[in-house]
């Protein structure tokens, strides 16, 4: 049984280009702020020219799409550890202020098809997959890895995912991102 004070093991030498694209949230630690009925939650990552990553997070609640955008970058450019910072520009505050959180890749398979994401306080955990569903044995393997890194996996909540997933085209106002910020950073 891993101890919480133990430093978490993160992925080394993450290939950011291969990490780009869409990831579906298979399970996460639910947050008080996130819509309890959030479905089809997903993240789409795009590499920027300057080596940072554009982040688009989407969820659907009562049939309506909520989205928020931000930027991810390596916490320490000289390190080969997959410890990223994610910065969201939070509406509706003026001036626009960034909210920054930690995003640590704890595990990714060789084919970059599924990933376990956490952060140093172990308050948040995400199981992500390239597809809307994950093989149960792989899911259990990732849960076991989370246990080894000191997470209380009883808090994991599976995210409903439609197959096929919904389109992003609906023009929901962009200022609905508060749920995601609060769930990420517990603010």
From TrEMBL:
Biological source species: Mesembryanthemum crystallinum (Common ice plant)
Coiled coil regions in record: none
Transmembrane segment boundaries: none
Gene Ontology biological process terms from the UniProt entry: lipid metabolic process; response to reactive oxygen species
Organism placement in taxonomy: Eukaryota, Viridiplantae, Streptophyta, Embryophyta, Tracheophyta
Renumbered residue ranges of the record's region Disordered: 154-178
Cited PANTHER family: APOLIPOPROTEIN D
Pfam name, any one: Lipocalin_2
InterPro entries according to UniProt: Calycin, Lipocalin_ApoD, Lipocalin_bac, Lipocalin_Blc-like_dom, Lipocalin_CS, Lipocln_cytosolic_FA-bd_dom
Protein name in the entry: Temperature-induced lipocalin
Highest taxon, organism lineage: Eukaryota
Gene Ontology cellular component terms for the protein in this record: cytoplasm
Domain spans labelled Lipocalin/cytosolic fatty-acid binding: 14-161
Family according to the record: Belongs to the calycin superfamily. Lipocalin family.
């Amino acid at each position: 049984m891993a101890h919480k004070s133990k430093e978490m093991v993160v992925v080394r030498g993450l290939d950011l280009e291969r990490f780009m694209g869409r990831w579906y949230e298979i399970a996460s630690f639910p947050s008080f702020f996130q819509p309890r009925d959030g479905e089809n939650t997903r993240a789409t990552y795009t590499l920027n020219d300057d080596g940072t990553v554009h982040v688009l997070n989407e969820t659907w609640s009562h049939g309506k799409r909520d989205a928020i955008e931000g930027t991810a970058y390596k916490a320490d450019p000289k390190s080969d550890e997959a410890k990223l910072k994610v910065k969201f520009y939070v509406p509706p505050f003026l001036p626009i202020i960034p909210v920054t959180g930690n995003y640590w890749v704890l595990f990714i398979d060789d084919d970059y098809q599924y990933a376990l994401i956490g952060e140093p306080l172990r308050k948040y955990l995400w199981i992500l997959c390239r597809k809307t569903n994950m093989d149960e044995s792989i899911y259990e393997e990732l849960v076991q890895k989370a246990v080894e890194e000191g997470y209380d996996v009883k808090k994991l909540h599976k995210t409903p995912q439609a197959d096929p997933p919904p389109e992003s085209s609906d023009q929901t106002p962009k200022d609905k991102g508060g749920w995601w910020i609060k769930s990420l950073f517990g603010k």
